[in-house]
Write a structure and sequence with these properties.
Blueprint: H1 2-7, H2 9-78, H3 84-97, E1 101-107, E2 113-117, H4 131-139, E3 144-148, E4 161-170, E5 173-183, H5 184-200, E6 206-210, E7 216-219, H6 236-240, E8 245-250, E9 256-264, E10 269-276, H7 277-280, H8 282-323, H9 336-342, H10 347-379, H11 385-399, E11 404-410, E12 416-422, H12 426-431, H13 442-449, E13 453-456, H14 464-467, E14 472-478, E15 486-492, H15 500-524, H16 526-556, E16 561-565, E17 571-574, H17 576-582, H18 594-603, H19 608-615, E18 621-629, E19 632-644, E20 650-659, H20 661-695, H21 704-736, E21 744-746, H22 748-759, E22 766-769, E23 777-779, H23 781-798, E24 803-808, E25 815-825, H24 843-848, H25 856-866, E26 871-875, E27 878-887, H26 891-899, H27 901-914
Parallel strand pairs: 22-24
Antiparallel strand pairs: 1-2, 1-5, 3-4, 4-5, 6-7, 6-10, 8-9, 9-10, 11-12, 11-15, 13-14, 14-15, 16-17, 16-20, 18-19, 19-20, 21-23, 24-25, 25-27, 26-27
């Protein structure tokens, strides 16, 4: 059922339609959401704009009240007298000028009322209430305000208002306070006007202004004045904190209202605009209605389209598919419904007519194929080429109306001759010869083009077939890329061309005839093919022999030793490298047991027992052995592996022997470096930690001299750590090609004397044998000082009693050679090539001095080679000379040296001080 549904066009179209509807609905929902969000944001923006305008008006109104009160205070100071009558007259004029003022008061410095206007309800000397506004005014030079009711009324209830008080001072002395009560009703009047304008448009709107305590100070409904409404106004608390926002919440009628809140600038109040959500989002509801209407029309139109599609297209297609699942037995068996659909003048009618034509053509082709199958079976019964040709000619005469058939075969020159024929004259069979240049012949054209060619013979050109009475010819090529091609030629006596159906039938038969012809010829040539296969096998054998020789040459050129063993452990092959490792010839190893190789290794000092135990395991393994040749230790890595056939069967084993002495030495050098660096880091760190802890002890007070000594030691150890890191960084820069040099002309004698002065200990015997007048060298003074410092420190460390420094210029060379010579024990000749390598330490250094990283001479080599010079060592049984060369300074550098001796000296001293302590890492090797 499910595969049928998947193959149904109706199901697919319905799926596509539903997907389209889903996409449209999702798109409509998305558009609805975006439009609703935009309309909602527009409504909120409009309410917030209204609230912001009211907030600005309220702020300006209060600021105007404060400024008016400040002006009144200045008028009080300017009045000639502070008598009650004078002030009452002044207050009356100011009160009449402002319609938003309820009362005006003049208070003494303690808050008692002295003068008030209107004065009909005021008791002179009464304390002004609320007292908090008086306290705030006394503490500030600016007006203080508070929302409430003045507590001095005796006969009538005072109106709520904004109480503003201002301290009046003259020459720094407090004269009193002027206070006024501004009517909240006047403050609410603009709000009521806005609300009334909205109500005339049948819209509900409420506007509320609250102070910092949430008390209503202005509202479109005056009954709400001085009520605490902070909890009833969503978003008001955030507006009091300076945020503008809109929120939805329950309104006065219990329905959802939209609350838009904004802060009032500079006074800490907030304005809240309220309106019902149903009115605010009425446009959104209208948009929803239109969107629903469009979706309904779209759905209805889709259903009508789907019904029409099903009745006019899907249902006829289903009927055609169900009635034409198999080819009918005859043309009369074609269903009547198909003929009825074929009368329609649309695509369904065209499809029905095409199906009828296809079924009729299929029935005709089926009949032809049945005939071809019978003829093909007759052709392939024999494997004799001539018998196959005779059968082909016989079946051709049975398939079509022809009177003569011939098969033409090209010879080595490409000339077509009769291989066999039927119905032709003897002259045609013996004398017919068609060269490739005779393009007028149908047979030649068919062979060259690979397509059937037919012609009518009219006697205009000489033709044996025309002479025999034939007037139409058809040539069909039988193309075979394996046994060669032939041409099948048929003739008829009537001057009538062959029909297309006859040509197709004969072409199809020719394809079957081609297979039969190939099988017969290939069978005949089987003996020749067998001989060719034997020759190919011989060629492959020679090639395999050459591959074997090439493989043997590759194994002979290997640097590692290779032994191939049989299952019984007998050595089948050994290369020259393995013979060199064992010290035996190839004839002494091949054909013998692997024990002979073990014995040869044991003779050179190898651990033969451990080697034999490892090799006795059947599984592949990797292990190391060590032997000694005289006094030189050698490490060999031996890896045993299994040799398997293509089927995975183990047919032998192989043994790889590799000399890993150098790798082991490098591992030892790295281990030595880690130990040395760890020691070099641990020693100064321990000293720094110890002296710092000593200085930080709270119960001990050290004298300044000892504190200075401790700090000096900490600084020296820190310099020692810095120098160790600098050595590693300099080597890294030199390897990366980033080592920068500041070359100047440097006097070699002055340079050596400066280094000796800082390096030589008091008890050392050091001689400088550098003649005066040597030309300056072109060098980075700081880098060469490090080189001399390292070499001299090494000489003092390893020398017996005396160190000598020499310098000379070789003849005909633009170089200067400096040498540091000591009288200590010499360096072994085999170690001299390695002492300038990183991490390498000569045996006399490791034997007598355990400290050091093995970087000192490596740094010397890096610095000297960066200058274009070279460094080397000469040593005998007693004494060692460390020599290096530097290029001489050109004439321009000499002139700069003569002009700036003073500055250069100061710079060199500074560089030398910065590079002190290089001797901590200097070791010979």
């Amino acid at each position: 059922m499910r595969p049928a549904l998947r193959r149904s066009l109706l199901t697919r179209l319905l799926t596509v339609y539903l997907l389209f509807v889903m996409v449209v609905l999702l798109g409509g929902a998305r558009i609805n959401m975006l439009v609703e969000e935009r309309l909602r944001s527009d409504v909120q923006a409009a309410d917030q704009a209204l609230a912001e305008e009211i907030a600005r008006e309220t702020s300006l109104q209060l600021l105007g009240a404060e400024q008016a009160l400040q002006s009144l205070g200045r008028l009080v100071l300017a009045s000639p007298s502070e008598a009650s009558a004078t002030l009452e007259h002044l207050f009356q004029a100011w009160h009449d000028a402002r319609n938003d003022v309820d009362h005006v008061y003049w208070l003494d410095p303690f808050g008692a009322v002295l003068v008030a206007w209107p004065a009909d309800h005021i008791i002179a000397g009464a304390e002004f209430s609320p007292p908090t506004v008086v306290e705030q005014a006394l503490k500030s030079d600016q007006p203080a305000f508070e929302v409430g009711i003045v507590g001095l009324a005796s006969s009538r209830l005072a109106s709520p208002g904004v109480i503003v008080a201002q301290a009046v001072r003259s020459q720094g002395h407090l004269r009193g306070l002027v206070a006024a009560s501004f009517s909240l009703a006047e403050l609410s009047l603009p709000l009521a006007n806005v609300v009334q304008a909205q109500q005339r448009q049948s819209k509900h709107l409420m506007i509320t202004v609250i102070d910092g305590n949430g008390v209503v100070v202005a509202a479109s409904e005056r009954r709400r004045l001085l009520e605490t409404a902070l909890g009833e106004l969503p978003g008001a608390a955030q507006a009091l904190q300076g945020q503008s926002l809109s929120r939805t919440g329950p309104g006065p009628d219990g329905q959802d209202w939209l609350f838009s809140s904004v802060p009032v600038p500079k006074i800490g109040w907030a304005v809240v605009v309220e309106r019902p959500v149903s009115e605010a989002l009425a446009v959104v509801d209208q948009f929803h209605l239109w969107l629903l209407l469009v979706a309904s029309l779209f759905t209805l139109g889709g259903l009508l389209f789907w019904l029409l599609l099903h009745l006019r297209v899907i249902r006829p297609l289903q009927m055609l598919a169900s009635q034409h699942q198999a080819l009918p037995a005859s043309t009369e068996a074609i269903p009547t419904a198909t003929h009825q659909l074929a009368r329609q003048h649309d695509e369904i009618g065209e499809l029905a007519r095409s199906l009828i034509r296809l079924e009729r053509d299929g029935l005709r082709k089926l009949s032809e194929l049945h005939t071809l199958l019978e003829t093909s079976n007759a052709v392939v019964r024999s494997l004799d080429p001539r018998a196959v040709i005779e059968e082909i000619m016989h079946e051709v005469q049975r398939l079509v109306d022809v009177q003569a058939v011939a098969v033409l075969l090209p010879d080595e020159q490409g000339v077509l001759r009769v291989l066999q024929s039927s119905g032709h004259s003897e002259r045609y069979d013996r004398q017919l010869s068609l060269s490739p240049e005779r393009v007028s012949s149908a047979a030649v054209l068919a062979l060259n083009s690979g397509q059937p060619v037919q012609k009518l013979l009219d006697g205009s050109q000489p033709s044996f077939a025309y002479d025999d009475g034939f007037r139409a010819v058809l040539a069909l090529p039988i193309i075979s890329h394996h046994v060669g091609s032939v041409v099948l030629v048929v003739h008829r006596r009537e001057p009538r061309l062959f029909e297309e159906q006859e040509i197709q039938l004969l072409s199809t038969f020719a394809n079957y005839a081609t297979l039969a012809w190939e099988h017969a010829v290939l069978y005949e040539r089987s003996d020749e093919r067998l001989r060719a296969v034997a020759q190919e096998n011989e060629r492959l054998y020679r090639r395999a022999t050459e591959e074997k020789q090439r493989l043997a040459a590759i194994m002979e050129s290997m640097q590692d030793g290779l032994l191939l063993l049989g299952i019984d452990g007998q050595i089948l092959y050994v290369n020259q490298a393995a013979c060199a490792i064992a010290g035996l010839s190839r004839t002494a190893l091949e054909g013998r047991s692997i024990a002979a190789f073990y014995e040869a290794l044991q003779a050179t000092g190898a651990e033969a027992a451990a080697c034999a135990r490892a090799l006795s395991r059947m599984e592949p393994a990797t292990f190391l052995i060590e032997n000694r040749e005289g006094t030189q230790a050698r490490a060999l890595q031996m890896r045993l592996f299994a040799v398997q056939s293509e089927g995975g069967e183990t047919i032998g084993r192989g043994l790889l022997v590799r000399d890993v002495t150098r790798e082991r030495e490098l591992d030892e050098f790295k281990t030595t470096l880690l130990a040395a660096v760890g020691h070099e880091l641990r020693t100064p760190l321990a000293a720094i930690k110890g002296y710092a802890s000593t200085l930080l002890q709270p119960d001990v007070t050290w004298p300044p001299e000892e504190q200075q000594q401790f700090l000096q030691t900490i600084m020296q150890e820190a310099d020692r750590l810095t120098q160790l890191v600098r050595n590693l960084l300099d080597l890294s820069r030199q390897e990366a090609g980033l080592l920068q040099l500041r070359r100047t002309a440097v006097d070699p004698r002055e340079l050596v004397l400066a280094v000796c002065e800082r390096t030589m200990p008091p008890s050392a015997a050091l001689t400088v044998a550098i003649p005066a007048g040597l030309p300056p060298v072109l060098a980075d003074r700081g880098r060469i000082e490090v080189v001399l410092h390292n070499l001299i420190s090494n000489a003092l460390l390893y020398g017996a009693s005396h160190v000598e420094i020499k310098a000379w210029r070789p003849v005909d060379e633009e170089m200067l050679i400096l040498a540091v010579i000591d009288d200590g024990p010499g360096i072994a000749p085999e170690e001299l090539p390695h002492i300038f390598e990183r991490f390498y330490r000569a045996s006399r250094g490791r034997r007598h001095h355990t400290a050091g990283t093995g970087l000192g001479l490596a740094i010397c080599k890096a610095f000297v080679e960066a200058h274009g010079g070279r460094i080397w060592a000469q040593s005998g049984p007693q004494g060692t000379a460390m020599c290096f060369s530097l290029p001489l300074a050109p004439q321009s550098a000499l002139m700069a040296l003569n002009e700036g001796v003073a500055e250069e000296g100061e710079t060199n001293d500074g560089d030398s001080n910065n590079r002190e302590g290089q001797a901590h890492s200097a070791r010979r090797g």
